[in-house]
Amino acid sequence: MEKAIVAEILTIGTELLLGHNIDTNSAYIGEQLAEAGIDVYWKTTVGDNEDRIAKALRLALARSEIVVCTGSLGPTEDDVTCRVIARVVGRPLILDQVVLESIRRRFAERGLTMSSNNERQALIPDGAIVLANPRGTAPGLFIRLGDGKVVVAMPGVPSEMRPMLREQVIPRLREGLGVRARIRSRILKTCGITESKLDEAVGDLARSAQNPTIALLAHAGEIHIRLTVKTESEAEGQRFLDDLEARLRERLGDLIFGRDEERLEEVLGRLLLKEKQTVAVAESCTGGLISHRLTNLPGSSAYFICGEVVYSNQAKERLVGVPHELISQYGAVSRPVALAMASGVREAAGTDLALGITGIAGPDGGTAEKPVGLIYIAMASKEGVHCREFRFLGDRDTNKLLASQVALDMLRRHLLSR
Amino acid sequence: MEKAIVAEILTIGTELLLGHNIDTNSAYIGEQLAEAGIDVYWKTTVGDNEDRIAKALRLALARSEIVVCTGSLGPTEDDVTCRVIARVVGRPLILDQVVLESIRRRFAERGLTMSSNNERQALIPDGAIVLANPRGTAPGLFIRLGDGKVVVAMPGVPSEMRPMLREQVIPRLREGLGVRARIRSRILKTCGITESKLDEAVGDLARSAQNPTIALLAHAGEIHIRLTVKTESEAEGQRFLDDLEARLRERLGDLIFGRDEERLEEVLGRLLLKEKQTVAVAESCTGGLISHRLTNLPGSSAYFICGEVVYSNQAKERLVGVPHELISQYGAVSRPVALAMASGVREAAGTDLALGITGIAGPDGGTAEKPVGLIYIAMASKEGVHCREFRFLGDRDTNKLLASQVALDMLRRHLLSR
């Protein structure tokens, strides 16, 4: 087993501390390093302050082999990363003629004259490898220190940083450090089970599995199971993941709806296509969200016929034929109305399947008998129509989302059970 | 000048280091602390590793007065934050009966039985103030140490963390520390203008303004103007912001649609209520998104009557009365069909206003004559019906979003011009 190579990410910029920008760079860097087999244990953010950048860099070099910095490499006075790195690693700044020339050319091409501020970007710590930045003016730096440790500095603009990392930094790191192992991960997505029930069902695997490891991640309406494997061989990694996935599927069955980037509506769309089934939707409290999700997929016109957002009682009666008496007897939020909506829209649209959803998304409109979050979801097919009652505890947006999730999942399970 | 109070943010979770989740929490926390007049100099992220969480917490307590932690507070084995904090600050864990009872109640309300994993969430460091979490099971912690320093722990789920921070943490911090200077910011939201046009219109103010400062932030379909002011007096800060807002409004007029958290659909909803106007929508390529956005507001049933997602040609004919000949002559994606959809749904639903949207969201279905991104948006009122043509350049999701944005904005401008 090779020794673990640990990298640390240092993102620099006062705007990150103030929350004006969300730091997406460090997530990207972390992902790329992990895939290259390099572990990240620490991530630090400091503002454009020389003293704190220097402290953070020293600390990082003391506990990690690689330090990847981004930000504060631009042409303005408060872009200080390069100067601080030179000071901390004890290298003088030297004017790099190649860099100077390329900056000058970039300005000339755009018909601009170069300011002395931009000239400062050609001052490079002695012995640093300059990383070309075809998308901007600030070049990156790759510095190998006497003790074998590495300091990398890249600009903070994501469109400049990302290709520089992928094309120039990662290959140099892998080569220089002799890293061979790679990390691969796979996500299995579940819905219809709580996080703690899922932990009871597969927690023993999560605790015993070493390679791949298992982690549970909760999202609104779905819980993801992440499998992560570290191997040198691609084939071996895939086999480890396949084996573990098979064991999880054995326990969880169709609670697992998809893998990796797959969305629930996408899995459902494929099933509808495969089974040659069409669908229509009558929505009240979800207000169009279910139709929106069903039509997020290219080609959804093959199975999605129409959606009716029947918000008013009159619309429920006129558009999907809910009998007036049903609404006056049971109220618009009731099981009989959900059933009538599903049957009504199925008949009117002439589809194989249909959904009817009525409920109280909140925050207003709840009563003791019918509280906020009470939602009825009915599904109609040629076998008949049935309805489930839910009590969601979220805010309005969350309740709409959870109801849409359950409704789409009811269709999915119906199609799987055919 | 009062002494600066420095806070440090510690986000915990291996998924953050691996880049599987983007850390939006720390940006939100940084913003809220800055507005409360509390500086943040350091932000650290570590994985779910007890040893490194403890190291990071000790380091943070050595250099900052306040440490705000998020993440790893859930019910599973690898959620270790609470245990580590107790160890680092030297307080035993005690079973909190109130917390235990509230977790139990939450489960009972949903008809679920509580697992022993969830019971562990009621173990609280001695002397900690428990922060209620009405949106989830894991409570937060607020611990004041003997030396006056503060450790806060909150769950990592943003919808649980954000209100806890705003309502329970910030007020306690401000009170305890006697902070006076505050940063206030205000966001003015525009739509219907590009970032470069906006820069031309107000760039001189952005470059000259010192307090408040101005920054432009581009989002899908809207550009925000952020004004930021730092003052001790609430009244003075508000006056500075009001003055600058007035100057911006003078230049931009109704290009500014809202302020701060206001969403376009919310501004529109208020206008519809005020003008006592009702609306119906016939959507094809936006697939329900416009109805979804119009119903994201509590009380939207007062103005939103119905939405029809007429995806198939038959649905366009049957539900909103688009003449068959129009579709065969001009195609479903055409100006005449959009006009007929708007008029048809207005008549059928009996509303004051109506929208009709048809287009090609992509990525498939485009031709040389009718490319992906071509979208027609028609609006009908008692004055008549008109239609605008757009060519959006985004992917499917973005095109749907941009079309919904323009459509809602057409309604807004119509109501403003009445």
Describe the fold and architecture:
- Two copies of one chain form a homodimer.
- By secondary structure, the first copy, chain A, is an alpha/beta fold.
- The first copy, chain A, has three domains: 6-177, MoaB/Mog-like domain (Molybdenum Cofactor Biosythetic Enzyme, Chain A, 3-Layer(aba) Sandwich), CATH 3.40.980; 182-259, Alpha-Beta Plaits, CATH 3.30.70.2860; 264-417, Maf protein (Alpha-Beta Complex), CATH 3.90.950.
- Helices cover 42% and strands 25% of the residues of chain A.
- Chain A has helices spanning 14-17, 25-35, 50-63, 81-89, 97-109, 116-119, 158-177, 195-208, 234-252, 264-274, 289-294, 313-320, 324-330, 335-349, 396-417, and strands at 6-12, 39-46, 66-70, 93-95, 123-125, 129-131, 140-144, 150-154, 182-190, 213-219, 222-231, 256-259, 279-283, 304-310, 353-359, 374-381, 384-391.
- Chain A has a six-stranded mixed sheet, sandwiched between helices. A five-stranded mixed sheet of chain A has the order 14-13-15-16-17.
- Chains A and B meet through helix 2, strand 2, helix 8, strand 10 and helix 11 of A and helix 1, helix 2, strand 2, helix 11 and strand 14 of B.
